[in-house]
Design a protein that fits this description.
Length: 523
């Protein structure tokens, strides 16, 4: 056997060992949850149901960490503002902190009124419905992670509760008005996030990157952009991230955001002025100014996600616990701290063990991100959630973040296409003349240049005069080369398809698991 064959075998063995190590760590966590729940609540009737529900809740938390958290840190990693290890540490810390410190002490066990608990009066049936919902949503999240498709945890749980509810009490149990709003958010969330991100990126390009001296322009514009970020995240956290700690009205959150924005501007501006002489005067130099804001935005998005989605994901488990400890399993129940800790730790483990795949998908596989683009994505995510919350629209942070990534990529394509038309106009004026080599060289440079350098290349081509020559066949070939796709179409198809089927697949799985559990539990 050759040496290279030994190397291939060793590499394959290393991959297998890594996979076994990750799965083993996840199993140890789940077994730990099972032992803790069983030892602490062995005195209650049907303790085995609570143990089973806790295990399913732990599995759900692992899948949330593996899939949903990637949206918060993916752009920062894709733009190299954070390493993968740094992103995992920051996200895990702030997700857990958001869940434990600011996670709501009361949560809707039936997710925004998707089903009416009054139609499920039998407590055993309610427990089976919630267990089926958790398991169906968790299995779908696991499959989506394996496929490399970021999907919404909220929509997965909604589908699970709906499917198990229908299986238990029929179609009339579902609040179809709420489901209609959620279906509408599938379209509104990504489109709004994409438009907001594209507006901010175009503003940056117009005011900074398209200028003759981008670094000088950045000293004026970037502090304002960071101030807007401070306003957005302060308002976002006040409304969505600290509900357990304090009740804040929209006006109060808006005012607090404005105060923080002004203070941030006056702190950041002199820091940027002092840092500017040490930076290069091109796009790379300007991008370095966004490194710290990107890291902060990743931390704040993770904190807000932990405060909201962790509580939502363990809501069915809280409902089961309430019923089995002689509660009523109503629309709203208190979440014991041990359940929130399971959710927080599970998300951290899921992110560290299985999250890098989705982080890479969001950060680099859809479109190329630098730090200014990633900054616009994070800012768009916060602002879109603020707008949606005031409109009373159920919105997915996953759809918003991915929509913002798509928006940034399609804006880049639009700008390249517009500049490509200018190239065609330049070439058409020289068609039929003898020498094409100089024009071809400039066009190849143009194709690979960032948008802000293309104006300079066009000016050089105009100065070439009669030497810039191209015939009809060559012109057609170069037009095709200039039409680059800066958003990976296969990624769009995969992700959007996963979004569309999330609710029905989760519902179907949950219904199947409900019938399976019911068949096992009935005498």
């Amino acid at each position: 056997m050759k040496v290279k064959d030994y190397i291939k075998i060793e590499n394959a063995a290393n991959i297998s060992r890594n996979e076994v190590g990750r799965l083993g760590t996840a199993v140890i966590f789940i077994v730990g949850v099972m032992i803790y729940t069983g030892s602490r609540y062995s005195h209650i009737d049907q303790a085995y149901l609570l143990v089973a529900a806790a295990v399913i809740g732990a599995y759900m938390a692992l899948n949330i960490g593996a899939n949903d958290v990637a949206n918060n840190v993916g752009p920062a990693v894709g733009s190299y503002a954070l390493t993968m290890t740094g992103a995992i540490i920051i996200a895990a810390t702030f997700e857990a902190g958001g869940a434990i410190i600011a996670g709501g002490d009361v949560v809707s066990t039936v997710k925004k009124g998707i089903i009416d608990p009054a139609n499920i009066s039998d407590k055993s049936t309610f427990v089976w419905v919630m267990m089926g919902a958790l398991l169906g949503a968790a299995i779908w999240l696991n499959a989506a992670t394996w496929l490399g498709a970021p999907v919404s945890t909220t929509h997965s749980i909604v589908g699970g509760v709906m499917g198990a509810g229908i299986a238990a009490a029929g179609w009339d149990v579902v609040n179809w008005n709420s489901m209609g709003k959620i279906a509408l958010s599938w379209m509104v969330s990504p489109v709004t996030g994409g438009i907001v991100a594209a507006i901010f990126l175009y503003t940056l390009k117009k005011l900074v990157f398209f200028k003759d001296d981008p670094l000088t322009a950045a000293k004026r514009v970037v502090p304002v952009m960071i101030g807007i970020m401070a306003w957005a995240f302060t308002t976002y956290l006040a409304l969505k991230g600290i509900k357990k700690i304090a009740s804040v009205s929209f006006g109060e959150a808006l005012l607090a955001g404005m105060v923080v924005a002004v203070v941030t501007y006056f702190i950041v501006r002199p820091l940027i002025v002092r840092a500017a002489p040490k930076l290069t005067g091109d796009r790379d130099g300007v991008n370095r100014l966004f490194t710290v804001p990107l890291i902060i935005s990743a931390a704040m998005l993770s904190f807000a996600h932990g405060a909201n989605d962790v509580a939502n994901s363990v809501g069915p488990l809280a409902g089961i616990f309430d019923v089995l400890t002689e509660g009523q399993g109503g629309v709203k129940v208190s979440i014991p701290i041990w359940i929130m800790v399971i959710g927080a730790i599970g998300i951290s483990f899921g992110l560290a063990l299985f999250g890098p795949k989705l982080i890479r998908t969001v950060g680099s596989e859809i479109t190329e991100l630098d730090r200014s683009r990633a900054f616009c994505i994070a800012l768009a995510a916060a602002i879109t959630v603020i707008i949606a919350s005031q409109m009373g629209m159920p919105i997915s942070s996953t759809h918003v973040a991915l929509g913002a990534v798509f928006g940034v990529g399609f804006l880049r394509e639009f700008l390249e296409k517009r500049l490509g038309k200018v190239v065609e106009n330049v070439l058409s004026r020289h068609e039929g003349l003898p020498d094409f080599s100089a024009a071809e060289a400039e066009l190849r440079n143009f194709q690979n240049a960032p948008p802000e350098d293309k104006q300079r290349i066009l000016e050089e081509m105009k100065k070439m005069g009669p030497e810039a020559v191209i015939n009809a066949a060559q012109r057609k070939e170069l037009q095709k080369a200039l039409k680059r796709q800066l958003v990976k179409r296969s990624s769009i198809l995969k992700i959007v398809s996963a979004w569309i089927i999330t609710v029905p697949v989760s519902a179907l799985l949950a219904a199947l698991f409900y019938f399976m559990l019911r068949g096992m539990m009935l005498p």
